[in-house]
Design brief:
Strand content: 5-15%
Domain ABC transmembrane type-1: 19-321
GO cellular component, one term: plasma membrane
Keywords: ATP-binding, Cell membrane, Membrane, Nucleotide-binding, Transmembrane, Transmembrane helix, Transport
Largest sheet: 6 strands, mixed
CATH architecture of the largest domain: Up-down Bundle
Domain ABC transporter: 352-586
Number of strands: 10
CATH class of the largest domain: Mainly Alpha
Membrane topology: Multi-pass membrane protein
Shape: elongated
CATH topology of the largest domain: ABC transporter transmembrane region fold
Structural class: alpha/beta
Number of domains: 3
Length: 599
């Protein structure tokens, strides 16, 4: 029922076009069922000598004999009638195909847009847990499956149902006994068809999931092709893909076997039914129980009943596949999006207060355990900590990618949970260690979050990020196309372009999540100096493992297992025993060794 509801939602906005297609199917079916009647009439009453039997009221008003004589002398009339019927049938067949295709294309466009928009507003946690390739497959292949079902298979299924109803009605009106003989094997065909549908549904689910896993493996490999080549892992990746590919092939072979058995069995049943109609009709003609025209008509009608019902199994198989795809799409839509419509929009100046904040991704595994600190407006605070200490989790909470379980986070005195997600993210700029660049020009990548932006602002942001000179060295400068994920640039260039993209927004809070790790110490110092000169009142959070980067901060926080274990300036922290001093001593010793080697 939910899938039918989603299908109705899918067709919203194209309902009238789809109804016109259904009306065309009905009219096309009516006209196609008239052809055997015209042929039977010609055989029995025009070519043959069987008298036309009409009700007395009509017989007194219509000169039937004269009419039949006229037709005998002008057989082109029969041909003209058949041509007109066929022409009308063709017109409605064209309208059926066109209207259903238009409705399906428009509906698919809307559903893709709805899915894309829904995915954009799903929580960060959802995107962390799902496979990108599987989501892509649901938004492309599954949508295409539903589109084909709407444009072709659903209309053909409707045509079969209407044709069975119309043809059965005509056959019963002509001869009830002969009709029963003509549908003798149809219940068996129908039972086989239902069993086929049930079996196909089960296999389609597994095959669709296998295709999603295969797509995810392919997407992951192509995205990480540089790592694959660097580690010489091509054979390993090929074996992994081969495994997914074999599973997908085996499941599709199961589908082929089920379909082969179904078509082989039902073809035999349909041919037996057709042979039975002709054999019984011939016997009854010899005995004078039916006319030759009736046998000709029933022979045509038997084909119009049995073969479409057999094809209904295929249509049901496609329907099963479409319902599987609808279910996979519904799984995405069932995930609750983030709330962007509610929340306060207070002025954001840059004061940040963490007070006894607790947070965990998995129950019983705390990531932040009573984190408490204060950052004044315009202050630069550096955070140092081992991998897994909770540094990035602090950033996730500030951006409301996750909400803390206990404690309080206040931005300029306002509880963070009360502030609109969209509003807080609009006022925080973040540069990640592994920045994502889009496959656009460098200019578009820098200005991507600002809409139309003046050239001067782009150049100023690039100079602040110390990447202007590197860009100018490219053949097309700022119009240079960046490869997918920025693969054509070095790690340092990507980071600096990401920094320029962030600082061009002029936000009151800046976060650098180990985003200077790929640049040398000299460039690092130049960038930090330029940032200080550009926005002296910006609150800046720097997460780094490089002491030279941390040393110039107004305050340094040392994080360990979700707790702040040290806090102070560089000068204060190197005077006391602790993690910060030990790291400083190690990096200082390494720096001295490097200087000695270069002398």
């Amino acid at each position: 029922m939910r899938k039918l509801k989603l299908l109705r939602e899918y067709l919203r906005g194209s309902g009238m076009t789809y109804l016109l297609s259904m009306l065309s199917v009905l009219l096309m079916t009516v006209f196609s069922s008239m052809v055997p009647l015209v042929i039977a009439f010609t055989v029995d009453y025009v070519i043959g000598d069987k008298p036309v039997e009409l009700p007395a009221a009509l017989a007194s008003r219509i000169d039937v004999a004269s009419g039949i004589s006229t037709i005998r002398n002008n057989l082109w009339i029969i041909l003209a009638v058949l041509v007109v019927i066929t022409l009308l049938q063709g017109i409605f067949m064209y309208l059926k195909g066109k209207c259903s295709a238009v409705a399906a294309q428009a509906s698919s466009k809307r559903m893709r847009e709805k899915l894309y928009g829904h995915l954009q507003h799903l929580p960060f946690d959802y995107h962390v847990k799902v496979q990108t390739g599987d989501i892509i497959q649901r938004c492309t292949s599954d949508i295409e499956t539903i589109q084909n079902f709407i444009s072709t298979q659903s209309i053909e299924a409707l045509q079969i149902i209407l044709q069975v109803i119309v043809v059965l009605a005509v056959m019963i009106a002509m001869d009830l006994k002969y009709t029963l003989i003509s549908i003798l094997l149809i219940p068996i065909v129908f039972v086989i068809t239902v069993r086929f549908f049930i079996n196909m549904m089960k296999v389609f689910v597994r095959a669709d999931e296998a295709e999603g896993h295969m797509t995810a493996t392919l997407q992951e490999n192509l995205a990480g092709v540089r790592v694959v080549k660097a580690f010489g892992a091509q054979n390993f990746e090929m074996e992994k893909f081969d495994e997914k590919n074999r599973t997908h092939r085996d499941l599709n072979m199961d589908i082929v076997r089920i379909m082969a058995n179904f078509y082989g069995g039902t073809d035999l049943m349909c041919m037996l039914q057709h042979a039975l109609v002709i054999a019984v009709g011939t016997y009854w003609v010899v005995r004078g129980q039916v006319t030759i025209g009736t046998v000709v008509a029933f022979s045509s009608y038997a084909g119009m009943l049995v073969w479409p019902l057999r094809n209904l199994g295929q249509m049901m198989g496609f329907m099963g596949q479409a319902f599987v795809s609808l279910g996979r799409i519904q799984e995405i839509l069932d995930n609750k999006p983030e709330d962007y419509t509610t929340g306060e929009t207070p002025p954001v100046q840059g004061e940040i207060v963490f007070e006894d904040v607790h947070f965990e991704y998995e129950k019983g595994k705390p990531v932040l355990d009573g984190a408490t600190f204060r950052i004044e407006k315009g202050q630069t605070v550096a955070i140092l900590g081992a991998t897994g200490a909770g540094k990035s989790s602090l950033v996730h909470l500030l951006l409301r990618l996750y909400d803390y379980k206990k404690g309080s986070i206040r931005i300029d005195g306002v509880e963070l949970k009360r502030i609109s997600r969209q509003w807080i993210r609009k006022h925080i700029g973040i540069v990640l260690q592994e920045p994502f660049l889009f496959s656009k020009t460098i200019r578009e990548n820098i200005g991507i979050g600002c809409g139309r932006v003046e050239e001067d602002r782009i150049l100023a942001a690039a100079r602040t990020a110390c990447v202007d000179e590197a860009i100018q060295e490219f053949g097309m400068g700022y119009d240079t196309l960046v490869g997918e994920r920025g693969v054509t640039l070095s790690g340092g260039q990507r980071q600096r372009i990401a920094i320029a993209r962030t600082i061009i927004r002029d936000v009151p809070i800046l976060i650098f999540d180990d985003s200077l790790s790929a640049v040398d110490a000299e460039t690092d110092a130049r960038i930090r100096k330029a940032l200080r000169e550009r926005r002296k009142d910006t609150t800046t959070i720097i997460i780094s493992h490089r002491i030279t980067t941390l040393a110039e901060a107004d305050r340094i926080l040392v994080l360990d297992q979700g707790r702040i274990i040290q806090s102070g300036t560089h000068e204060e922290l190197i005077k006391v025993d602790g993690p910060y001093r030990r790291i400083w001593e190690i990096q200082s010793a390494l720096g001295d060794e490097m200087e000695e080697m270069t002398v």
